[in-house]
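Hello again,

I reread your note about wanting to compare the complex against the isolated chains. To keep things tidy I'm splitting this into two emails, and this first one only covers the full assembly. Below are the input lines as submitted, including protein chains and any nucleic acid or small-molecule components. They are followed by the predicted structure of everything together. The single-chain runs will come separately.
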Amino acid sequence: MGDIAFLLIIFFMVCSNFAKEAHIHLKPPKAADLGEIKETPVSVTISQEGALYLQGRQVPDAAAIEWGIAGLLKDKAGEKERTVLFKCDAAVSREVFEPVLDAIARGGGLIAAIGDKTVESIEPPGTGVRYD
Amino acid sequence: MLKSFKKRQLSDSDIPVASFSDLAFLLIIFFILTTTLQKATGFLTDIPSGMKSQVPQQEKTTTIALHEDQISLNDETINLAELRRRLRSMNLKSKLGDAKIVLLTATGKVKYQTYYETMATITASGGVIAIIREEGGKEP
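Full-complex prediction:
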């Protein structure tokens, strides 16, 4: 019984994605044309209040994100390694998110924009987009 | 007498393992409550960075302009479903290089929701998004 319990613990430890950004409040945008995105180690988040976060830590402006991304992606060449998870609240205005998207691109990041998939897709079942 | 004393000494030094399974189940409950096995959804895009060229281009690039909640494709106001249909009919996936580029520009109070839906539509139709901002990164 104890052995099974420890095997289950190991399973959960391997499969878990611990929420690094649980303290950041945001409502993700919704769209139909979305695919599956794999978790990556680099993330940029914009909260409901318009505060900017790099790796779960608040940063003052988009320039700090550009430098941070450039530093984190230094010597990273592969598409998967350069991918930056971008999470932003749906109600944030363009004056806030546009410079951040630009900063990620300038820092050499590939943007994986996270959102919720809606069911209004006109694609037939099984033909959804997939990003690996 | 000496034999029984030695036996008791050995048994006293054993680690009690009876409570280990209880501990293990407590850890399992902790992991069940804290784990998120949900897969993230979104889209992947490689936005080219750089300044807008001052040299006039030979071929007209597809331009999407966002203003408030309004979407315009090459100066024609359309809705999102129509944008999706038009972009798919352009067959951007089969095109190469600059022909894949779709310029995205926003003016006024554009929310991320509108911007996100537009970017997702461009990406799904095989286009490469190029964000147009004011020169030097300054806002108007």
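For quick reference: Residues 62-137 of chain B form one domain.

B.
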